[in-house]
Write a structure and sequence with these properties.
Layout (H helix, E strand, L loop, with lengths): L2 E6 L5 E7 L8 H9 L7 E6 L11 H7 L4 E6 L9 H8 L3 E4 L3 H7 L1 H9 L3 E9 L17 H13 L2 E5 H7 L15 E5 L18 E5 L4 H9 L3 E4 L5 H10 L4 E6 L1 H10 L4 E7 L26 E9 L2 E8 L2 H8 L3 H7 L9
Parallel strand pairs: 3-4, 4-5, 6-11, 6-12, 7-8, 7-11, 8-9, 9-10
Antiparallel strand pairs: 1-2, 1-3, 12-14, 13-14
Helix pairs in contact: 2-3, 4-11
């Protein structure tokens, strides 16, 4: 997601052009801004969230367009980790005598494009863990009742996350307990999402609701039962044998299929496996003003857990928002944002966002 603004600085600053990248294959943000500015782009400053591209892809190089327009200065949030760009855009601008500054609002830009940057730098899909729970940390009552812990507004926010991610992932336990659809319902993305089920023992029933909903379904399993595989395949699912069917192997396969972001919605064992492996990037929690109680009522994370507080997974850069009476809590895996800032050449943004810290990789 890239935006660009052209400004003529003087006694009174004037915005002469602006634009944003509206769709894949369409004009890039810089080109949109230059078209709007016309001749007024000459001598102006271009503010842009991402390094201008320097290669011929679906569109011509933006760096060449910026040079041709006579822009005097470019202020970018951070570099583009795409190996086809990776500093070449900035070099093209500097070679043409254009002043280049990198790092302004870098952390905000990294947050904006987290899914793109994680996939580009780590060569795996970006992973978001999401769950809804009561204030005392329960995702259901002792009888398994969970509809609905969250408020209607919070549930709509949750549906919005599905529009933003390439794939939604759950375990077979969630399929058996909730019989979910796992589909996009807001009509924002324009196409069905990929539904992914981790099902080591191949317990997903062929009559599951999600198999009757349009859109692709992948089921990862370690089971070899041919009859079950054929029954699920007859319902349109693609059953993939992986051993082990764990987060690392699943993410590698999804990345090879072009998936760049995954929303993990549960259940507790699946969420815990991603946390234990460290293969996650952000955590989104809908915390409802309920007190459910019950020592046997399920919590968001199952598994063996961590043995000491020092070894427990830690989040940072927390944000809290409200949706009706619910609190929406966002946190990032410790060190993620700092590492991404370094990888995209925005150390200035790192120092600006964390004053008093030393430069360089953490």
């Amino acid at each position: 997601m890239v935006g660009a603004v052209l400004v003529r600085h003087g006694e009174k600053d004037e915005v002469v052009g602006s634009g944003w990248h509206r769709r894949v294959g369409g004009p890039h943000a810089e080109v949109e801004a230059l078209r709007e500015a016309g001749e007024r782009a000459r001598g102006a400053t271009l503010y842009v969230t991402l390094e201008p591209c320097a290669h011929h892809g679906r569109t011509p190089p933006c760096a060449d367009a910026v040079v041709a327009a006579g822009v005097a200065r470019v202020v970018a949030c951070h570099g583009d980790p795409d190996p086809r760009v990776a500093g070449r855009g900035f070099a093209r601008l500097r070679d043409a005598g254009i002043e280049v500054e990198v790092g302004t609002l870098a952390e905000e830009a990294v947050r904006l494009n987290l899914r793109f940057l994680v996939a580009a730098t780590l060569q795996r899909p970006e992973v978001t863990l999401k769950w809804a729970m009561s204030l005392d940390g329960k995702i259901a009552t002792v009888t398994g009742a969970s509809h609905w812990i969250s408020s209607p507004r919070a549930r709509r926010w949750s549906l919005g996350l599905r529009e933003e991610h390439d794939a939604i992932l759950v375990g077979s336990g969630t399929v058996l307990a909730d019989d979910p659809r796992l589909d996009r319902r807001l009509g924002l993305a324009g196409s069905p999402n990929l539904r992914v089920i981790l099902d080591r023992r191949l317990r997903t029933p062929p009559e599951a609701t999600l198999l009757a909903v349009p859109g692709p379904v992948l089921i990862y399993t370690q089971a070899t039962d041919r009859e079950r595989r054929e029954a699920l395949a007859a319902k349109g699912a693609e059953v993939i044998g992986l051993n082990p069917a764990d987060p690392a192997t699943v993410l590698a396969d999804l990345y090879g299929r072009g998936v760049r972001s995954v929303l993990v919605e549960g259940g507790g064992e699946v969420l815990a496996s991603f946390v234990a492996s460290g293969l996650y990037d952000q955590v989104l929690v809908d915390c409802a003003p309920l007190l459910i109680g019950g020592k046997d009522a399920p919590a968001p994370l199952g598994g063996e857990g961590f043995q000491t507080l020092a070894s427990a997974a830690r989040l940072e850069d927390l944000e809290v928002r409200r949706r009706s009476g619910d609190l929406l809590i966002l946190g990032y895996r410790q060190g993620l944002l700092r590492n991404l800032l370094v990888k995209v050449g925005a150390e200035a943004g790192l120092l600006e966002s964390h004053p008093g810290t030393e430069g360089g990789a953490p």
